[in-house]
Amino acid sequence: MFSAIANLKLSIFLSLLFILFCNVSETSSEVNTKPKCKKPFIDILISPVFANNETNILELIWSLEDFVPGTMLILMNSKTKKAEYEYKLTNPTGFVSTNISYKITNTTYGFKKQALDYYVELKASASGPVICSSNMETNPTWMQDNAAVLSKLSIREMFIPGTHDSGASTEEDDNGEQRVQKYVMTQDETILNQFIFGIRSVDLRIAYYSVKSNDSSKLWLNHGVQRICPFSTIVNQIKKFMENTKEIVTLDLHQFPVGFSLHSPGVHPHDILVEYLKAELGQFIAPASLTWNAKLEEFWKLNKTLIIAYNDEKTQQKYSDILWLPITQKWANAQDIQTMKKYMDHEFNQPPAGPWSAMTELTATGMGILTDEMKGLRQMACSVNKDVTMWFLGDDWGKRAHIVACDFFRETSIVKTAILWNLRRAKNTTCDI
């Protein structure tokens, strides 16, 4: 009797062990055989840092799901079709400086997609076949180009590539590397060129320099208290882009650092600003009644493709027909990349419900500017930009991002990354193939 019971217990134990082994083996097999479904990602970046009397150093970035050691990245000159730099990959993701200075001879671009001076190829070996390639290029019409796929997405569901302090461009003020100015300038491209390269959300800080009169010519584009250029310069560039494309663009009017709170009783800077925007851009302004849940096709149907988000509650309510609710900007206010990453990890785990922007740049402190400890915004951007691209290529942030704002955006792949994720979202997948 005892022997029979013991044998029965042993039989049950072995059966349970077999079932457990099979389940573990099956799970392990599923992990090991998980299909690879993302296309190789490679791109060409431009460093904003001035070093050794060289500017615009080209950098290469890659992210390969199906990685084979020894795979080659080859930087090609578009005109000569000759290789100018070769790099053997040792990791599935990374970035490398080529030490090649990009001589930009033309800063005027058209409203059709244009391949520029370089492209990069991915090869199994230096002499092997091309696996994929990627152009240095403009992207003036990427929303319209992909309208058949993207039109059913709402603007809130979109991954929107943006810039921070977008008007603080060295194209508008060429004193960018003076002692104080290097903590002011955040971009090397004009607002118009930012749009042409694919940026679709710009962060604008408006000042008003008159305490006694109502005059739109007193409106300026600022970075903090520092004047950059007359606001009319920026508005004219916005108008030119809107006249030539059907792209949906967001103006994030987020701060009003000078002149909007201290003025004479009869002066109304917010009214001056809004009336000026209506007069110059009114034909393009999307009605706020659309809301952030409106699909792209709804903007195109109305032929109204300019969103003006306004960060002043009283003014937004007064002009609620054309001024959209403000965009929440999420700032780490960090001086190092680890702190910024930790902060953003938390935000992406619990993202805001409404429109919001991940401000992916380091913040200089007053003492840091005084001592020049952080070497200026160019160096600060260079220390995070390539990592920012990697973070958003990944699923954790990429599938949750809304607006992402960068400094010196051409050292990121934020535009191509956003396009990639929007195509995935429209198909309700995290895969490309």
UniProtKB/TrEMBL annotation:
The keyword Plastid does not apply. GO terms for molecular function: phosphoric diester hydrolase activity. Keywords: Signal. GO terms for biological process: lipid metabolic process. Residues 1-29 form the signal peptide. PANTHER family: PHOSPHATIDYLINOSITOL-SPECIFIC PHOSPHOLIPASE C X DOMAIN CONTAINING, ISOFORM A, PTHR13593. This is PI-PLC X domain-containing protein 1. It comes from Cacopsylla melanoneura.
